[in-house]
Amino acid sequence: MAQDRATKALARLDGMAGLLPNPGLILYTYIRKEAVLSSQIEGTQSSLSDLLLHESKQAPGVPKSDVKEVSNYVAAMEHGLKRLKDGFPLSLRLIREIHAVLMKGARGGDKRPGEFRTSQNWIGGTRPGNAVYVPPPPHEVLPAMGALEKFIHGEPVQMPTLIKTGLVHAQFESIHPFLDGNGRVGRLLISLMLHTEGALAYPLLYLSLYFKQRRTQYYDALMRVRTDGKWEEWLAYYLAGVEEVAQEANATSEQLVRMFAKDRQKVGAMGKAAASALKVHGLLEKHCLVSLALARKELGLSLPTVAQAMARLHKAGIVHEISGKRRKQVFAYQAYWKLITRGMEETRD
If you compute the radius of gyration of the chain from its CA atoms, what whole number of angstroms results? Predict the structure, then answer.
């Protein structure tokens, strides 16, 4: 049964996360990977390297407006996770807060960030009359979202977590409560619900790559829910995605744990140079892509010490320089980068 397979795959991922020496290291990059993919679905051209370069105070290869959208997605996710950790419920207020963070200073930031719409929107076409889909009228948004909030909290009936998250995502997308940013908020909700419902101690499951690789199926399945009430078809698509992505995330996590341990052992054998090289390697485990300036700032080491440590990691085949510059060099943790970006480039629009 699809639900059972997806639930077991998710449980294995949750168990694997508990075995990681520091789940936060992988979570840092996973959140950013999801931010890039979810934003690409909405049309941005920013890549993971663009985002990480931006965070390292380096120039990305795309317009800053694109990177700003992706950076805001990371901030919105982290805001939601922090609020949940502090005991705040997953509520309409929190959804509005997340939307405000997502849209702040970015494209669409003039479209009532943090507020439900009070005018009609539509998907596709130039007006409601020729649109592909027209969401509920403005006066129905708050009642519909109020009912969705109750459903999230188990009213009128409690449902298995995976079924609930799938239904909530589809219903949120159909209500389309904001003038812009609905798709990204809807995908964020999946991760936040899985986390707050206790299905994942660490939010390591992100479905944007699955949705992006099967975009036509994604939109078709959602549309058939709206036009024909085909909830079972949507859930079958959604649960297959949860199973596939959880299995992939679990395999990736296992590979990363083995890779980190193997490389730490290699670095530890560098003699007197091992101490500083291990510090730089530890930073690379988290950031995956690091400039010499960032390493100097984060580790409190001198620039020559950082440069020498990075040169040793390069000689050992652990990192490679990606900027092509003599100054302001940027290094990628080669095997980690290849693993974490697998499947991303061929889906980029």
Answer: 21
